[in-house]
Each structure stands twice: as C-alpha cells, then as structure tokens.
Amino acid sequence: MSKLLFYYLVVAISVVINIILAWVTAKFILSKHNAWTRKKRLTSLLVVGTGILLWAAIGRLGWSIQTFGGNSAREWLNIILFWSFSHIGTFLILTHIFISYLKK
User: Fold this and answer.
1) Distance in angstroms (rounded) separating the CA atoms of residues 30 and 86
2) Residue 97 belongs to what domain range?
3) pLDDT digits (tens, 9 = 90+) for 44-57
C-alpha cells in the first residue's frame, strides 16, 4: 500500500511542477514575444499537446511486451516514453491555457 501512495505522491508532485513550468513559460512568452501569441500559433500548442497526450496514452497499452516482473528493457522504455510524452503534452496544453488566460 505504501508503494502505491508513493507513486501517487510522485505523480502529484510532477503535475504541480508541470503547472508551474507552463505558467512561467506563458508569462515569459507574453513578456518577450507577444507577436508569437497569435490565434493560429496558440491553437497549434493545443493540437500538438493533445496529440502527444493521446500518443502517450495509446502507446502505453503495451500488452505484448509485458513480463511478470515488469523489468525488461522494452517495458522500461515504454514507461520512460509514456512519462515523457505525458509531461510534454500536458505542458503544451497548459501553456496554451495560461497564455490565453494571461492575454485577457
């Protein structure tokens, strides 16, 4: 049970870090590159971020590479790709949201 709680704590901390980084990035983009925030460019953040999140979620299925111990190189690569794509996609979507919010 404590291992499960530890993983939920790690995920919670990573989500908070992702939110903070997206907020800081949105403020930086608005302060330095206001012309960058045109509607088409903002929409591209949302579309690319959503696509990457879907890629991570669908790619995580990986039933064909699972072993009993869960320690094969393919499984570790699957986990690393899932976490990376999840964070990148979430970061892009949050950056879009924060830029839209801060522009008003």
Assistant:
1) 24
2) 2-103
3) 888 999 999 888 88
